[in-house]
Amino acid sequence: MYELRREVKIVLNLDDSRKEINCSYYLQSRKEALSQFIQQIHGRPVVVKLNSGVDYRGVLACIDGYMNIALEQTEEYVNGQLKDKYGDAFIRGNNVLYISTQKRRN
After folding, report:
1. pLDDT digits (tens, 9 = 90+) for 11-29
2. Quick check: 89 and 96 in contact, CB under 8 A?
3. Sm domain location, by residue (predicted)?
């Protein structure tokens, strides 16, 4: 684990006056950022978009380093229309375009 500290200067031109702000922030490695994202979404509702355009929505049960995904309470959407419902679903990682969070179901 490592963090990089980056200093930036922000210059604002407001109402003919120039203001400079110095700030710093920390950058994480991409691997750490991805790991934190996965920890945050585990057990939460997600949308998994496949390369084919099909969406699967469900509760994230498991995900591995190859983006293989296990979902619970899974729904399949094609062109935005609900096509089918599954209890549990396994999605092979090489088919995944992206994964994103969605609002919790009531």
Report:
1. 555 555 555 555 545 555 6
2. no
3. 33-105
Average pLDDT over residues 85-106: 84
Number of domains making up the chain = 1
- Whether residue 2 has pLDDT greater than 50: no
CA atoms of 29 and 23, how far apart (whole Å): 20
Q: Letter for the amino acid at 87?
A: G
Angle at 45 between CA 63 and CA 69, to 5 degrees: 20
Element (H, E) at 5: strand 3-14
Domain-embedded: residue 2: no
Q: Give the domain range for residue 94.
A: 39-101
Give the separation between CA 20 and CA 91, rounded to whole angstroms: 49
In a domain, 15, yes or no: no
Give me the mean pLDDT over the 56-72 stretch: 90
Q: At 105, which amino acid appears?
A: R
CA angle at residue 58 from 32 to 50, to 5 degrees?
A: 70
Percentage of the residues of the chain whose pLDDT score is greater than 90: 43
